[in-house]
Amino acid sequence: MEAEGKRWFSNSVFCLFCVAYTPSLHKTKTQSQPAKESVPNLLSTLEVDELDIDLIPSAGSRPEIVLRVLNHGERKDFHAQCTLLALRNSPNELYHGTFDLKWEHDFNRSVSLGHEDSSNLMIAKMQVDHRNRLAEMEILGLSGAEAKRFEWSRWSTNLKEKLPEYDLEITVLSDDARSPVSTRFTLRPKAWYGPLEMVRI
After folding, report:
1. CB-based contacts of 157: which residues, under 8 Å, 6+ apart?
2. Which of 7, 58, 102, 137 minimizes the number of CB atoms within 10 Å of its CB?
3. Distance of CA 190 to the CA centre of its chain
4. How many other CB atoms sit within 10 Å of the CB of residue 95?
């Protein structure tokens, strides 16, 4: 009986020691584990470039006026839109809305431009009917895979009247850029027989 009592006492003490020591072991094990590093958010660390471009209107006696887009940054895909803001010296009602612009010699909505590459956007063209002494200018855009006339004005070359003027905003965009580049211009004929000019406002 005395031996069994001692054995019972020993087992009880051992069990109490295990119960008291087990949380300590668990705590020590938990503390010894390295903290998990948070996974970085790739979208938040992704750098998106700003557009570094110049918009250069054409000059000279050609009947069309184009806007040269010169890319000083890395290669990107570009597309452009036009919004008509105002029309002066014309009885026509102004077209309200924004439309895609067409690249010269290309019917795709976007073009790829590398560093210091450029391409021209078709803005408007002018034609003169000498027989009837009339002149007309058209503002062009892209509809599907075709060039489309979105706005036009006509005037007499025989009358010394004020010539039509358009205020418009050209916006160049890229999916790889944080924000677009927008510039406002006035489009007008220099004289009754042209040519057209586009100046910044």
Report:
1. 128, 133, 134, 135, 192, 193
2. 7
3. 32
4. 16
DSSP 123-170: EEEEEEETTTTEEEEEEEEEETTEEEEEEEEEEESSS-PPPPEEEEEE
Stretches where the chain sits below pLDDT 50 are 1-46
Picking from 186, 183, 182, 180, the residue whose alpha carbon sits closest to that of residue 199 is: 186
Classified as helix, coil or strand, 16 is: helix
DSSP 177: B
Give dist(CA 9, CA 143) in Å, integer: 95
What is residue 75's three-state secondary structure?
coil
What is the Cα–Cα distance from 120 to 58, expressed in whole angstroms? 9
Q: Which amino acid is at 163?
A: L
SS3 61: coil
Give per-residue pLDDT as tens, 12-47: 444 333 434 444 434 434 344 444 444 444 444 345
Nearest to 192 by CA among 166, 168, 159: 159
Kindly calculate the radius of gyration of the chain based on its CA atoms and give it in whole angstroms. Answer: 36
pTM of the model as a whole? 0.75
